[in-house]
Structure formats: C-alpha cells, structure tokens
C-alpha cells in the first residue's frame, strides 16, 4: 500500500491552473537598464588641420587631472584662444558624462562633466572653459547664495505640519556648528515620519540656494543647495524615477557630487591613452 505522502502532489505542474485570470502569464517588473560605463572614443582628425593647440591642451588637462588626483589643486583652462577645429576636437574628446551642475547667479554657469570623471566643461556669459577638480569651484562658493531666502520658523505653518519644526531646529543647529572637514550630518526623511505639509514647510523655511546638481547613472541623484549654510537636499531615484531615498545633508558638498581622487587620476591616464591613439 502506498502512503499518501508518496502520491504525486495535487495542484502542481502544467495544466493544474485554470486558463482564466489566475492562469495569466506573470507580468514581471521591468529591470533597470542603460547603466553608463566608460568606453574610449577616438575623435577624428583632419589631415590638413593644425590641431597642435588642442593636443597640447589635452596633455595639460591630463597632467592636471593626475595632479589633482594626488591631492593637488584644481585647474581651469580657457578655450577662448582655440579656433573652431581645435574646439571641435576638444568637444569630441570630452563627450558628456553623468553629472551636470547649474550655478545660478550673474553670470549663470552650467557645468557638464565630461566622460572623464572630474573634468568639467563650463559654459556661461563670457565663460567657455574646462575645469579639473572634484567639483567646479563655483559650485562650492556660490552654493548658499540665496535665490529664495531661508526664513526659518517665520515660515507660515499650515495645518498638517507635524515633525518639520523639530527637524528644522536640528538642521539649523548643525549648520551653526559646522566645521570644515567634519563628517556630514544626515537627516534621513525616508526613515522618519512626516507629512507632505512637513516637506513643503521645510522647503519654505530653508529657502533655495544657487546650485543644483544632477547625477545620472544607475538611477538619478538630485542635489539642491538650500539658503541655509551647509544644508543640502539630496534625493535618490531608481531607474524608473521613483524616489527611494530622501535626505538633508549638512556638509560643505555632498560626497555623491564629488569625483573621487582615484577617479581623477584615472581620468588623466585615460586622456593620455586617447592622445596616444590620435597622434
């Protein structure tokens, strides 16, 4: 006699489920795609063009990136002296990387990271240059210049504001006692109870600074300076643009916006590789 537990189980295998609603094909969530990776690009050069100025500039940029990666200061290279052909070679070599920076003010400046981490292309009124550094210097100096002033507890408090006042006190205290080089203080809104009214009130209380940063990679990271010194809003989104982490950081510059020293040194080596290929 065969025991029951040895019999084939019921309700499993092909044909065991009804063809109606319960038997529909599984609809899996779309997986993240299009993650950017570096690939060397060799720009085309005309045989009858004098491109020595661009090649010399690329060599200087590579040396600056290597020097900055070893702890040296950043460097700025003016593109104004280059003619159209040399500018075209520089632009084609630099390409477009993952991070863009908007620096509001007079003049307003837009910075786009090249495919080489820590090498930035800057555009603005009277500005056409390449800067080498962890982040454009103006992004540090202009960050907390107020476009919308921080009014703190003077912000009108509508119904629904619950935990925001306590968070504001914490952020203002950390801002007042900030010391250069100190570890970033992070307030993780994702893990804290709050209402939509809380977020709106904090936005009004902290104001808006003059620097916005967008890092596009495996999802997006949006970084906004507030008008409260050293306070940044940092938001992480997944590849489907769903907010997965929402924080305030009290720091000079959020680490996620900075090119790491090893990345800068690697950029110097990669630019030299491109130079060797096109010379």
How does this model look, in words?
With 279 residues, this protein is α+β, with helices and mostly antiparallel strands. The protein has 2 domains: 52-134 and 260-278, Ribosomal Protein S8, Chain: A, domain 1, CATH 3.30.1370.140; 152-257, HupH hydrogenase expression protein, C-terminal domain (Ribosomal Protein S8, Chain: A, domain 1, 2-Layer Sandwich), CATH 3.30.1370. The protein is 27% helix and 21% strand. The chain has 6 helices and 10 strands, in the order αβαββββααβαββββα. The chain has helices spanning 52-69, 84-94, 137-141, 164-176, 196-206, 261-278; strands spanning 75-78, 99-103, 109-113, 119-124, 127-132, 185-188, 211-217, 219-225, 231-237, 243-250. Strands 1-5-4-3-2-7-8-9-10-6 form a 10-stranded antiparallel sheet. Strand 2 (99-103) and strand 3 form a beta hairpin. It is elongated.
Radius of gyration: 26 Å
The end-to-end span amounts to: 85 Å
Globally, the shape reads: elongated
How many helix segments?
A: 6
Strand order of the largest sheet: 1-5-4-3-2-7-8-9-10-6
Q: In percent, how helical is the residue content? A: 25-40%
Name the beta content range.
Answer: 15-25%
CATH topology of the largest domain, what is it called?
Answer: Ribosomal Protein S8, Chain: A, domain 1
User: Poorly predicted ranges (pLDDT <50, ≥5 residues)?
Assistant: none
Summed up, the domain count is: 2
User: How is the main sheet built?
Assistant: 10 strands, antiparallel
CATH superfamily of the largest domain: HupH hydrogenase expression protein, C-terminal domain
